[in-house]
Specification:
TIM Barrel, alpha+beta, single chain, eight-stranded mixed β-barrel, six-stranded antiparallel barrel
């Protein structure tokens, strides 16, 4: 017996589905894998093919001014964007199927290859015929447009497509043409794909004008490209989830002396209630507020978090941590708000300067033996985030200069043992 992981999105399940497969020997002693429900699936493959292809939800390329990202959790990024794979490598195919991507493009001369792959994995093959993409029944599912000049781009209109999907092959510029397409197709029910040769190209297409194209076709013979693209989707999916934050009570506030503290300047603006998760121990990170609030003595800096000393941990995408001293321009960090909504942001600059520090300790329960702690610069612009107080107008920050024993703040409690920022199961004591 063997097990093959079949993507839940392709079968119609909400989660990945594991099926049992039996190894059978056919003519010529060739081996094939047959699932226990193979005959049942085979009999209804034709009627399902239309549903299976259309199952993955699509995102409309239009903006909404009434939805706030800070209060509304978006759908899974995996479900809002579509990924098709164009490859001749069976290793790439296997890696893609394992990660939930089952739609594959083949040239018109590769129908036998598509048939061979269909015998070992549950895939949905499409075939490139001239300027069109068709399914096994030669039904058109997409139209391909090569764009190499501004004039060709201007001729591309939503109502011109003979199928519900567009596939763009951008032969010259990429970013500006993709932005123009997103603008032209906003509100359209059609899905626009772009052919990408690298994960970075795919990321550009998926993010242009914030909303991005509806999908990408990853054309690659390299397994690493699939892994990197899935890693990108995992990071985006993490940002769509609510992070569990715990209420803790301040047990000590003490001036600690001088130290090298780190200001993290992001390439994104932060709103009241948002900040970074930082702490002396990975097992408990404090939500440190950004400098987005106005004051009489200094202008606000909504891109900055005065995060703490160089030794402190900071939360980064992928459930990992790194030291503040390791941050530099181009790295990603996890921005979290008062309700636990997360998003990723790129570090634009890091400033390390010697400043006076204050030690803050907190406990979740009064009888806890080991408190959680953080060092922060002793300044009025540095603050921690308190818990939400219902839906009414609430306090979003408490300056460390006003912090006192008994105040409530927010913590992210997690595993404390780390190896290169990755949580591991290991005995560890941190004090």
């Amino acid at each position: 017996m063997a097990a093959l992981l079949v993507a839940g999105s392709f079968l119609g399940y909400s989660k990945p589905h594991r099926s049992s497969f039996t190894l059978q020997t056919g003519k010529g002693k060739s081996c094939r894998l047959f699932s226990s429900d193979y005959s049942r699936r085979k009999s209804r493959n034709r009627e399902q093919s239309y549903y299976l292809y259309h199952y993955t939800p699509r995102v409309k390329m239009c903006a909404s001014s009434t939805i706030s990202a800070s209060t509304t959790a978006p759908d899974s990024y995996d479900k809002s964007k579509r990924v098709w794979i164009w490859t001749e490598s069976q290793q790439v195919m296997a890696a893609a199927v394992e990660r939930g991507w089952n739609t594959f493009l083949f040239s018109s001369k590769q129908r036998q290859l598509a048939s061979d792959w269909s015998s070992i994995a549950f895939i949905y093959p499409l075939f490139v015929e001239g300027g069109e993409v068709v399914d096994r029944d030669n039904k058109r599912v997409a139209t391909i447009f090569e764009v190499s000049t501004p004039q060709e781009l201007l001729q591309l209109l939503p109502e011109d497509a003979k199928a519900e999907n567009f596939i763009l092959d951008l032969l010259d510029w990429q970013v500006i043409p993709a932005e123009n397409i997103v603008a032209a197709f906003q509100g359209s029910q059609k899905t626009v794909f772009a052919i990408s040769k690298t994960p970075l190209e795919a990321q550009v297409f998926l993010e242009v004008l914030e909303h991005g194209l509806g999908g990408v076709i990853m054309k690659s013979e390299d397994v690493e490209s699939i892994l990197e693209l899935k890693g990108y989707f995992d990071r985006r999916n993490e940002a769509s989830n609510l992070l569990g934050l715990t209420k803790a009570t301040v047990t000590q506030v003490q001036v600690a002396g001088m130290g090298d503290r780190v200001c993290v300047d992001l390439c994104s603006l932060m709103r009241p209630g948002e900040g970074l998760l930082v702490g002396s121990f990975a097992r408990g990170l404090f939500l440190v507020h950004s400098e987005c609030l106005e004051s009489n003595y200094i202008a606000s800096r909504p891109f900055r978090v005065n995060a703490g000393p160089v030794h402190a941990y900071v939360s980064v995408p992928g459930g990992k941590t790194c030291y503040l001293s390791e941050l530099k321009a181009g790295k990603e960090v996890l921005v979290v708000d008062q309700k636990g909504q997360t998003r990723t942001a790129i570090v634009g600059r890091v400033k390390i300067e010697t400043r006076s520090l204050i030690l803050v300790e907190a406990k979740i329960h009064s009888d806890d033996q080991d408190p959680y702690s953080i060092f922060l610069q002793n300044a009025e612009t540095v603050a921690l985030v308190p818990p939400c107080q219902g839906s009414s107008l609430q306090q979003t920050s408490i300056p460390v200069t006003s912090l006192k024993v008994g105040d409530e703040i927010l913590l992210r409690v997690q595993g404390g043992a780390r190896h290169t920022g990755i949580e591991i199961q290991e005995f560890v004591v941190e004090r």
